[in-house]
Amino acid sequence: MMPEAGHYALVLALVLALVQAVVPIIGARRRDPALMNVAASTASAQFMFALISFGALTASHMVSDFSVANVFENSHSLKPMLYKITGVWGNHEGSMMLWVFILALFGALVAVFGGNLPATLRANVLAAQAWIAAAFYLFILTTSNPFLRIANPPVEGRDLNPVLQDIGLALHPPLLYLGYVGFSISFSFAVAALIEGRIDAAWARWVRPWTLVAWIFLTLGIAMGSYWAYYELGWGGWWFWDPVENASLMPWLSGTALLHSALVMEKRNALKIWTILLAILTFSLSLLGTFLVRSGVLTSVHAFATDPARGVFILAILIFFIGGGFALYAWRAGSLKQGGLFAPVSREGALVLNNLLLTTACATVFVGTLYPLALEALAADKISVGAPFFNLTFGPLFVPLLIAVPFGPLLAWKRGDLLGASQRLIAAGLLALAGVALVMAWSWGGPALAPFGVGLAIFVIVGAVSDLVERCGLIRKPALALKRARGLPASTWGTAFAHAGLGLTLLGIVCETTWSDERIATMRAGDQTMVGGYSVRLDGFAQRHGPNYREVTAQFAVARNGAAIGVMEPSKRNFVTRGSATTEAALMTRGFSQLYISLGDLSADGTIAVRLYHKPLVLLIWLGTVVMVFGGGLSLMDRRLRVGAPRPARSAKALQPAE
Amino acid sequence: MTRKQRRLVLIGSALAVLAVAVALVLNALRDSIVFFTTPTDVVEKSIQPGKRFRLGGLVQPGTLVKGGNLAVKFEITDGKSNVKVAYQGILPDLFREGQGVVSEGVLDAGGVFKADTVLAKHDENYMPKEVADALKKQGHWKDDYAAKPEAAGGAAAATSAQGGKP
């Protein structure tokens, strides 16, 4: 019964989406408030039905209803409850359900929180949103229905792919999708603006928070995925330039550019056409990401689905929305008025440079990801484009960007003073140079570029801090600094945190890739080996039973300078149902650095292959992204982003709502 | 500066960045891409020793020899030709005789493929996509090696191992 209810709810959601896609646009043309208001109610109702449908699928997974094909293929009655729930989106059909569910959620949020939008804009935005939703409902219902029943229900399911039975699956896909799908809002706003042929600073104020929310989730999603790959795949890498990772990086890069160009548009009413283009581009790249992962065109660790019919359908969606978006853009962009002059050296100029470098870097990733596919289709040559390509293209484009980052916030709008900004960055520059010299002296004869990487990271971090110091007047008028710091807009703090986070991530990346220590050894009980200044002794093995697997764990005693500091227990798990094995690495955190042990094969003679790493400052890579996200959150709090709702100044006594 | 000059500066810098990017991409494409090759290709088009490429096929059953210090030797076949592969390091979880594998490395002077990366990537047919395509071309698809494991389900998994730095 439940799956049928879910199926039916999905069909109803499709019907509502079709209504929402057509009626409000007619309403907006005729200036008919009744027709325009249909959008808000259908968006909420559509969300309700998407929720029911998604809930029905989740419930089928939770009660292990193996008469549903999707549950049978991806679940097992012995699987822990957490993985029964997360297993819902650990497969193609379920993940598409999550996708449309989040899409409907965002649509409903616009309907609820968009009360202060002009009526026609809201109607058009929600209609554009409904077009996307309708396409994906159709896709699910025709090619990937998760509610299909099996005539003779089996007693037991086939279990979920063991690699996915991890807390990472609970977090990574939802976060990533919240990011991908969140950019659909900026897309819909851009389409609505093009339909209306009108765009102003207020438009950017409405778009920026949505873009920021999507960016925050996408950043978290990518970071989470990276950390998951790091500890789950067992070879200590955190970024593989795998096509699927690139698919999420591309919308991030153009989304970051969008965030910054929307700023110019909001403050200075310039770069309008460019901002619209970026909004379309960002969501197009999100769709492309979905296509690359879901169609199975890539041989990649993530390509779960391999079904050409689906691929063709997603390709059609892709062509319709990307092609349609750009066609609308080409047709209507000319009607938007440009405004806001600025000198090349100015805040706007810096943000243009940021956009230029981010989009170009994004383009190189695009080439590296899709070139092999194009070549295979056209010339039948199979090639792989790996890390060396991206290091040679992406890297050199990011260096000038990172150098420019601290300068941006120090330049004034319209016409900036580069000399003045440089003077304020003297402290950061000197510290960076000191860092370079120190690292060079310490690692003499080592990698030549690493000290400069560390210096650049210091420059970015200290540069962000010195912007804050400058604005608070900490050095000029220390007595007033605290008061001024409180008075600074939240978005100023947000900028500083986000930029400092970028520096932290860079520091982590440079240190990890340069000074990581790796040992591969065959060990037997009692053997000892050294890695990164730690001595690691294999004490013995133990057998354990998990709910749906058996595992062999190895105990390693870790000591430094003769003093024992802990035990690490990596394991190898054998999943009974699928007959497949996973390697569970053991991690020991020391400050921001980590020791990492993963197991290879156990031989008959009692030796085991062991991979040990010491990864200095590796945690900074992810900590930096968390700081970036925190900065994004602070910017979101900025009351200037709340349009049309000016609030009275704080009175000292009254209670304030939490911000 | 006039409006026109400002626009020129903007367009000029955009073109400069683009030109740099194009140069970087072309340079990188020349040096850092790796071709996928089957054992038959290796035998027929003599590939120079020292040139990096990816070799894909099935691990010939009965050829896997484990030496000391994690050294392994095996042969990769596409049903027509075999190539000897030497690798040092930990093999991925899914590496098995008779199943698909992709390795990356260079040929040495003796015609042995020195792999520094071994990937046992597969879909539900336990076969890497490149290998499946190559085998189909050779007419050795499934019928000859139809050792499809039980209940592989709709999902695919992949693990990989790398010797040295990724």
List the helices and strands and how they pair.
The complex is a heterodimer of chains A (659) and B (166).
Chain A: H1 2-30, H2 33-62, H3 69-74, H4 81-86, H5 92-113, H6 119-143, H7 167-196, H8 201-232, H9 243-268, H10 272-294, H11 308-332, H12 347-379, E1 383-385, H13 387-404, H14 418-424, H15 426-442, H16 450-472, H17 478-487, H18 490-515, E2 517-523, E3 528-531, E4 534-545, E5 549-560, E6 563-568, E7 571-575, E8 580-584, E9 586-590, E10 593-602, E11 608-615, H19 619-637
Chain B: H1 3-32, E1 33-37, H2 39-44, E2 53-59, E3 65-66, E4 71-77, E5 82-88, E6 100-107, E7 113-122, H3 129-138, E8 157-162
Parallel strand pairs in B: 1-2, 5-7
Antiparallel strand pairs in B: 2-4, 2-6, 3-4, 4-5, 6-7, 7-8
Helix amount of chain B: 25-40%
| Strand neighbour order, sheet with most strands of chain B | 2-4-5-7-6
Unreliably modeled segments of chain B? 142-166
Q: Oligomeric form of this entry? A: heterodimer
- State which percent range the strand residues of chain B make up: 25-35%
Helix and strand run of chain A: HHHHHHHHHHHHEHHHHHHEEEEEEEEEEH
The radius of gyration of chain A is: 27 Å
The main β sheet of chain B shows up as: 5 strands, mixed, barrel
Number of helices of chain B: 3
Q: Write the element-wise H/E pattern of chain B from the N-terminal end onward.
A: HEHEEEEEEHE
Distance between the termini of chain B: 50 Å
Outline of chain B, from the CA principal axes? elongated
Number of E-state strands of chain B:
8
Task: Quickly give the structural class of chain B.
Answer: alpha+beta
Low-confidence stretches of chain A: 299-305, 644-654
The helical percent of chain A reads: 55-70%
The percent range for strand residues of chain A is 5-15%
